[in-house]
Structure of UDP-glucose 4-epimerase:
Amino acid sequence: MAYEKILVTGGAGYIGSHAVVELYQAGYQPVIVDNFSNSEESALQGIESIIGTSVPVYRVDCADESALRGVFAAEPNIAGVIHFAAFKAVGESVQKPLAYFKNNVGSLLALLAVMPEFGVENLVFSSSCTVYGIPDALPVTEATPTKPASSPYGRTKQMCEDIMHDVSAAPDNKLRTILLRYFNPIGAHDSAKIGELPLGVPNNLVPFITQTAAGIREKLTINGNDYDTPDGTNIRDYIHVVDLAKSHVVAVQRLLDHKATETVETFNVGTGHGNSVLEVVQTFERVTGQKLNYSIGPRRPGDVPAIYADATKAEQVLGFKTETSLADSLASAWKWQQALADKK
């Protein structure tokens, strides 16, 4: 068992909270940094309930270099960092581009400034398939060219990747980075003690589906049915959040074991299969028995028609492969939504 200390920025968020659980269960000591601008305190109770102990939490804005330095000083011997902290809604980024650049790029710059001061050389970065823009061919591999992003959110992820490549090329660089390009995380922990907790109206499809089924939303609006796809709706690669969390544990271990063959390594983290929005809706209805009220609306700015992963490299190099089906992922999301209702 490993006992290395891993700093998890955005560790109270959707993906971060699941990663904290997986890290702890793999024998690591997670330390959470989160300013709770896009997460809930209740996630901490969920984590504690699952793992049976509390985790150190620092309520800090990751873009605040001075405050971040204080965390590193208070937590000696950090072996690595997983950087989740970022704004993540494509549509919102079109409305608030400056906030996205300031937060997403600013937090990485602060982290990269502070890590060397404390001798921390291992970083797993939360990237996104949005860096591919609108790809010419599917599925996308890690060698697929990155094209102009379709949203400011996607551009922040491209910028962050570029920054890490430039930092790694510096003569005195000791940083080793793994970029994990996520596809679409969905679902919740089997315990239904942690899951996706959107603040206000959800930006992501699955929580909007579950909230509609629960009667919180009057209806689901599908954003466009005139895309060049088999049923006209967007196609995405939906990965269960626990599978995604486990990929971070594998990536951290690769860095700590000094197995990385380049200063920056990149991996797609997806199922390797695309599903349309309508397929997701119909699968949810089938596995839960809940009939959804939905209608077709206009396209959403920043959305690409279709994207899904070639996940071969992650399987061959990281030894990582997803395990959970779309049906089981959606069932876990509904179980989580019901658990939320029971708490009220």
